[in-house]
Amino acid sequence: MKNLMISLSISVMIITSSAMQQEKADMVIINAKVLTIDKVNPSAQAIAIKGEYIIAVGTSSQISAMIDKGKTKVIDAHGRLVIPGFNDAHVHFGPLDPDYIELRYTTDPSVITKKVKEQVARSQPGELIKGGHWEHEMFLDKKWPTKELLDNASPVNPVILSRADGHSVLVIPLF
């Protein structure tokens, strides 16, 4: 009986000691659908973050044990999807070209004609004229530009002017 009490006391001390030494997180996300990208454990309910690192992934109750009251930021995802490391970083290189005609914030379509004429004057005949970021909703009349806007501006150079969203293009080809 004495050995049982000693063993039980040591077990309680070890469990208590390990629980007290558990790392605390700076931020936790609980009640989530976490996609882990781990074949062994493809999903979880929660994650714990310290600094810039994910330090644990598991159930909401496991991760809640890493909360330091008053210090850990707790985000309840309410069942929403959490995908670690997902971001959308991209760049548009067009405006880096010194010959690119920047048309952002243009409110008068005649400015487009003027800028194209200026670029044609600096270009070789047949050289492609590129530009963009026009937004017809910024034009005072809100009308879409037409080919007539550029017909006389560029008689010997093809022109491609993309809309701000990249889904429409004003083109003047050479035939």
Essential attributes:
rod-shaped, Urease, subunit C, domain 1, 175 residues, 11 strands, 4-stranded mixed β-sheet, alpha/beta
How large a portion of the residues is in β-strands, by DSSP E? 15-25%
Number of domains: 2
Under the CATH scheme, which architecture of the largest domain would be assigned?
Roll
User: Unreliable runs, pLDDT <50, ≥5 residues?
Assistant: none
Q: Give the biggest beta sheet.
A: 4 strands, mixed
Order of helices and strands: HEEEEEHEEEHEHEE
- The counted number of beta strands is 11
Radius of gyration: 31 Å
- The mean pLDDT is 86
Percent of residues in helical segments? 10-25%
Structure class: alpha/beta
Between the first and last Cα atoms, what is the distance in angstroms? 102 Å
Give, in spatial order, the strands making up the sheet with the most strands: 5-4-1-6
How would you describe the shape?
rod-shaped
- CATH superfamily label of the largest domain: Urease, subunit C, domain 1
Total number of helical segments?
A: 4
Please give a structural write-up.
The protein has 175 residues and is an alpha/beta fold. The chain has 2 domains: 2-82, Urease, subunit C, domain 1, CATH 2.30.40; 94-172. Helix content is 24%, strand content 25%. It is built from 4 helices and 11 strands; from the N terminus they run αβββββαβββαβαββ. The chain has helices at residues 2-20, 60-64, 109-122, 148-151; strands at 27-30, 33-35, 43-44, 46-50, 53-58, 73-76, 81-82, 101-102, 129-134, 159-163, 169-172. The strands form 3 sheets. The protein has a 4-stranded mixed β-sheet with strand order 5-4-1-6. A 4-stranded mixed β-sheet has the order 8-9-10-11, with helices on one face. It has a 3-stranded mixed β-sheet with strand order 3-2-7, with no helix packed on it. The mean pLDDT is 86.
